[in-house]
Amino acid sequence: MPSVYLHPDLHCHSYYSDGVLSPTILAHQARAQGVDLWALTDHDTLAGQEEARASTKALGLAWVSGVEVSVGFLGQTIHIVGLGFDVRHPGLQQLLATNRASRVPRAQAMAAGLAAQGIPNAYTGALRYAQEPAQLSRTHFARYLVETGRCRSVSEVFRHYLVQGKPGYAPHQWVSLSACVEQIRAAGGVAVLAHPARYKLPVLQAQLLFDTFAEQGGQAIEVVTSAHTPAQVQQYAAVARERGWAASCGSDFHSPDESRCSIGAMAPLPGRLQPVWELLGGRIH
Ligand code: AMP
Ligand code: MN
Ligand code: MN
Ligand code: MN
After folding, report:
1. How many CB atoms lie within 10 A of CB 133?
2. With a 6 A CB cut-off, is 139 part of the ligand 1 pocket?
3. Can you give the CATH number for the domain in which 142 is found?
4. Helix, strand, coil in percent for the chain, rounding step 5
5. In Å, how far are 141, 146, 163, 240 from 117, measured between CA atoms?
6. Distance between alpha carbon 87 and the CA centroid of its chain, in Å?
7. In contact, 41 and 59? CB cutoff 8 Å
């Protein structure tokens, strides 16, 4: 495989987590958009990895393993993308299973909160949008509430029902940041801090997040993602340069109806950055 990639997309979701398309359809869309290196990064699951690998291979695209892990840090949820790890690594598999197992009681608590607001059957309704209870996410609840006519869009459901202080929100205990980075590294992968501008952390807490991530062995940060404005792209490019981190880019594509940009439809990385794929070397297939 070449080591120079001009158009990678290293963050997107299939219907094995909270996306709506299969890994195979995503791979076809990636190729149609000119993507030359692709990673499927479903939340807390590797269920789509083999299909993603096989379909990219059939299309002649370069592929690297991927996952997006929810972790707890200072009472907040932070997302860590893992790239280029061994998908059979038992420690990483166990870590992801722990997160998946805790999605079930959390979804039940969310449904109870919604029922108390006069929205019955949300657990069953959300489950129709997911492959299994262990993958239930807020996105599946949001799709169900749009279906019932409660809200016009998924983002409206989040605002009114699914964020802290709203009736369908239930607190969550994710695995720790340090355990996550440790297992990604143990599995031979690179840990990437996902969409940093999404975390509404005060400056000192953001510094602590960056310090802790680096101390645990985190090596890269998403600079280009659909969640970032052009100014935020520059801001986190500067963070990557200061910290000596590699830079990643990904669409965070979930669905043609809900996502801000299509798979592969992002701006290129700014200059004077080390692209994360330079760290992935032999792990790209
Ligand atoms: P969960 O892992 O169950 O907490 O769900 C988090 C997922 O919800 C994220 O991965 C996004 O796909 C989606 N999400 C989070 N915030 C919003 C929002 N404000 N609008 C739409 N989708 C969101
Ligand atoms: Mn998601
Ligand atoms: Mn995320
Ligand atoms: Mn994501």
Report:
1. 16
2. yes
3. 1.10.150.650
4. 45, 15, 40
5. 14, 16, 15, 44
6. 16
7. no
Q: Is 7 exposed, middle or buried (0-12, 13-18, 19+ CB in 10 A)?
A: middle
Q: What is the pLDDT of residues 54-90, one digit of tens each?
A: 999 999 999 999 999 999 999 999 999 999 999 999 9
- Asked if residue 136 is part of any domain, the answer here is yes
Contact 16, 42 (CB under 8 A): yes
Domain ranges, residue 108: 103-162
The ligand whose atoms approach the alpha carbon of 44 most closely is 1
Task: Provide the token pair at 47.
Answer: 């269920």
Q: In what order do the strands lie in the sheet with 246-250?
A: 175-176, 66-73, 76-83, 190-193, 220-225, 246-250
pTM: 0.98
Residue 79 alpha carbon to ligand 2 centre in Å? 10
